[in-house]
Amino acid sequence: MAGSDAWSCAASGPVNRPINAAMSDPRSLKRIAHPFAYYWNNTLIKPDKLVKAAPFSAYDKHYLCYDDRMNRREMLKSGLLLSAMAGLPARAFAQVNPTAARDRRLFAIARQQLERAGSAVWRKDIVGIADFGLHSAERRFHFVDLDNERVQSFHVSHGSGSDSEHDGWLKRYSNIEGSEATCRGAFLTRSWYVGKYGTSIRLDGLDMTNSNALPRAIVMHQANYATPEHVARFGRLGRSNGCFAMGPEQFDRALIDLGGGRLLYADSMGLAEDGSSLPPPIAQVDLLRNELGAIYESPSPSAY
After folding, report:
1. Beta strand pairing call for 43-45 and 198-205
2. Under 8 Å CB-to-CB from 276, ≥6 apart: which residues?
3. Per-residue pLDDT reduced to its tens digit, 139-153
4. Distant-in-sequence, close-in-space partners of 109: CB < 8 Å, separation ≥ 6
């Protein structure tokens, strides 16, 4: 062993330190041996065999040595790995959750609206938020899971009365029966029922801006015109009669996550994925009816 400078002794002090003087406890020896292969009397001894090779008395005046070149290589690789891992969490988080800033705003909106609704909402774990400040090609319906601090986003249609130009932008909200427009505000999800579009979810409007949701039959339902494939083909979703229409696969999630007693909130927030607010390219208005029965437009207050 002494003739080869490729070997260095395991002990940190001067070379040729007797093993029984350096470490007489087999457990210590095994711990120090890992993870490298050690040599005793020029014989390779793997860490799992080291303490079983012979009684410790047999190691007297012999020297436990290891391949110093291997050690340096392992240390180098370990150092590179640790250096890479040191910067990993921030980068990994940025890659896995690029919508973190937006999600924080959605959590805040969900909690604010739950507090405003109070005891009217009895299931407060998940809130549905429809952001009609975004184009219909965007995933603008958010399932905000407050218990697990998680957000999932899907497509949702708006009403034809809100977008007579059919360009994908909502321009008018309305609570008027027959308007076929989307209405804004807080909704309480009610029971399931089977209708024209299959299993659907009834909605009860909690604000003056959506108080006619039940008589207007404003509900959540599935529709083939509200799928990602429709967006890919036409660049926008189709329009509903004022209902919250989602693709069949996406709506299955709504049946589970937004079942009776939860909150759905609709407004124009225009939340981009990076958390910034993007105002729509055209002004949005509320379509209202005055005491004489005349219909007029009023600028729509929103989260902008």
Report:
1. unpaired
2. 101
3. 999 999 999 999 999
4. 129, 144, 265, 269, 303
Which of the 8 DSSP states describes residue 157? -
The residues, ordered by sequence, that sit 6+ positions from 245 with a Cβ below 8 Å of its Cβ are 156, 157, 197, 220, 221, 222, 223, 225, 226, 237, 238
User: Is 174 within 8 Å of 162 (Cβ atoms)?
Assistant: yes
Alpha helix stretches (DSSP H) within the chain: 19-22, 26-33, 47-50, 68-86, 88-96, 100-117, 228-234, 248-257
- Decide if pLDDT at 73 tops 80: no
Cis-peptide into 35, omega within 30 deg: yes
Cα gap 144→133, rounded to integer Å:
17
- Yes or no: say if 152 and 253 are a contact pair by the CB < 8 Å rule: yes
Inter-axis angle of helices 88-96 and 68-86, to 10 degrees?
Answer: 50
pLDDT, averaged across the chain = 78
Q: Which residue has the higher pLDDT, 217 or 89?
A: 217
* Whether the Cβ atoms of residue 263 and residue 283 lie closer than 8 Å to each other: no
140: helix, strand or coil: coil
What residue type is 55 in one-letter code?
P
Q: What is the pTM of this model?
A: 0.69
Amino acid identity, position 192:
W
The beta strand positions in the chain, using DSSP E, are 7-9, 38-40, 43-45, 64-67, 126-131, 141-145, 150-154, 172-174, 185-195, 198-205, 219-222, 244-246, 263-267, 285-289, 295-299
Place of tokens 């589970």: 256
User: 268: which 2 tokens?
Assistant: 């124009």
How far is it, in rounded angstroms, from Cα 53 to Cα 232?
A: 68
Using the predicted structure, report yes or no on whether residue 120 has a pLDDT greater than 70: yes
Residue 303 contacts residue 269 (beta carbons within 8 Å): yes
